[in-house]
Amino acid sequence: MTAGAYAHPTISRFAIADGMLRIGGLPVGLLAERAGATPFFTYERTGLTRRVEELRRALPDGIHLRHAVKADPLPAGVQHFSRQGDGFDVASAGEKAVALDTPFADRVSFAGPGKTPAELSRAVAARVTISLESETEALRVAAIGEWLGVRPRVAVRVNPDFQVKGSGVRLGGGSHVMSASRVARSATLWRSFRPAPTG
Q1: Is 156 within 8 Å of 178 (Cβ atoms)?
Q2: Low-confidence ranges of the chain (pLDDT < 70)
Q3: Residue 164: its pLDDT value, please?
Q4: Strand 129-132 to 108-110 pairing
Q5: HSE of 155 in the Cβ direction (CA atoms, 13 Å)?
Q6: Is 67 within 8 Å of 95 (Cβ atoms)?
Q7: Angle at the Cα of 60 (from 169 to 14), degrees rounded to 5?
Q8: Quick check: 177 and 156 in contact, CB under 8 A?
Q9: I need a surface site. Which of 60, 75, 109, 150 has the fewest CB within 10 A?
Q10: Distance between alpha carbon 159 and the CA centroid of its chain, in Å?
């Protein structure tokens, strides 16, 4: 088996020796024995770093890269990406716990509908940026912040009240999730927010 036998561009990045693919310098058969069963996932840290560097070179300056923990929640991988990217996007309590265990816990954003009050409370306490999905969630987060004596960090997902013609992207939820008019009302809420001092 030779390197020419592999046409896939991802496979071609790895070396082949003695007829066996090598990842991180180790034969894939040995890695399978370490894993104890197949199929299994294995990551090459130098390869991950190289791909992030390639992406940064292809993008304009000033673009921040945030790792979606949903795509790869492996703790070792998240720790590695904490040194390569600019933060993390999480969509569950489990993902948030993994991201908060990195040296850059202050760069975590929590998105997605259906966040429970307990999840929101933990996020506010940890100073995670919460992506607000509705007016109800905005009110809930404000109340939690007042109770904890912490000013929550928030971002707002906005669905416009109109459809953009020619756009091939449709966001779920429709304009009732967080329309421009509702964002204005929520902004008024946040301007008036004054958390109680902590003891």
Answers
A1: yes
A2: 1-10, 159-199
A3: 64
A4: parallel
A5: 14
A6: no
A7: 85
A8: no
A9: 60
A10: 20
